[in-house]
Amino acid sequence: MDMLRFITAGSVDDGKSTLIGRLLYDTQSVFADQLDSLKAKDGEGINLAHLTDGLKAEREQGITIDVAYKYFSTEKRKFIIADAPGHVQYTRNMVTGASNSDLIIILIDARKGVIEQTRRHTLIASLLKIPRLCLAVNKMDLMGFKEEVYQQILNDFHDFYKGLGFIGVDSVPISALDGDNVVQKSKNMPWYTGPSMLDILESVPTEEEITHGVSRIPVQYVIRDGEYRGYTGKLSGGVLRRGDRITAYPSGMSSVVEHIDFNGQDLEEAVPGMSIAVRLKDELDISRGDMISGAGFNPKIGTNFQAAICWMEPTPLYEGNRFLLRQGTNAVRAEVAKLDHKLNISHAKLDESGGSYSLNEIGLVHIRTAKPIAWDDYATNRHTGSFILIDENTNQTVAAGMMGGLPI
User: Fold this and answer.
1) Domain 300-403 - what CATH class?
2) pTM here?
3) What local confidence, expressed as pLDDT, does residue 351 receive?
4) Where do the structural domains in the chain lie, given as residue ranges?
5) Which candidate, 286, 306, 25, 289, places its Cα nearest to that of 176?
6) Is the predicted pLDDT of residue 45 greater than 70, yes or no?
7) Phi, psi for residue 122 in degrees, rounded to 5
8) Could you give the residue ranges of the DSSP H alpha helices within 50-108?
9) What's the topology of domain 216-293?
10) What is the CATH number of domain 3-208?
11) What Rg do the C-alpha atoms of the chain give, in angstroms?
12) Is pLDDT above 50 for 84?
């Protein structure tokens, strides 16, 4: 069984946590003792949102603060869900939860329609190159399950997302509280003939199923045992086959794949997502942090690049600040040489940087590294085009970055 990673996002009180609770409840993915602990004392039933809102402050305030991860499975697929906060001040949490997602569910309250937070989360999803989007128009029960309400929201949303580069966009009218069109098709909306939310989640392609592109292996470890020398790492993009010519970066030295070892097997080929050990015809000087690339377009090599970053630290970011940059298995000292522009998420445009970035702000910067690194633009490969910045004094992650430009 393959696995789909998806995230829910929306404004406060749009019903994200309730939707996830409904998915878990209706797919029988909740233990009996969990249900007993969530039953309301007044006998009114179960608060499904509390299946994800586990922090005490979340339950007291009725909001989601941190990203909550939940797991469930059906006969067709396994799932990892990230429930992201809706508040603007928790943008960094949403970015963290969305970075590895194959799909994002954007929730819209049918009473409110498309609002600023809808545009904010959709633009962030585009920035993070989440390939697929599902628009869930929630609380249709409060609008009498009217088709015209749903269609108006679809029209308004289409005008915003149409140029943002999503591979696929689905939409579904739901009532998360009552379960309409979440797992089972709703009898209250006979005018809707499309799939339920679960049907969409079970059928969309995952990143592991997408095998196009050039193969990349960020080297994690070199195994040396007598005559054996294998370079291990997770295959990120493309298909690697025995006999393929590869190049190691940043050295630029080439060889041929003689063996692909996976879980005790000697494979003819490997597909994205597999953690493998590659044995080469020649002994090359390859170490942790280097990149093995298949034939095709080459990764970029250098010490200067442009990137979009989300600043995650209360202390502002200024030009000249220095950090440890971690890109996959690679770690190198780096300097934020220039703050170019801030991203105005509400209006999808670039503003002046103002000389600093504050907590949760997203912008375009130039970074200079202490030694050459190999990378791809984030739009080409999310694994080899992403990085984090770490404050070496506190060892705290202060920014998440995407190499290349912005989607506007």
Assistant:
1) mainly beta
2) 0.81
3) 85
4) 3-208, 216-293, 300-403
5) 25
6) no
7) -65, -40
8) 56-61, 91-98
9) Elongation Factor Tu (Ef-tu); domain 3 (2.40.30)
10) 3.40.50.300
11) 23
12) yes
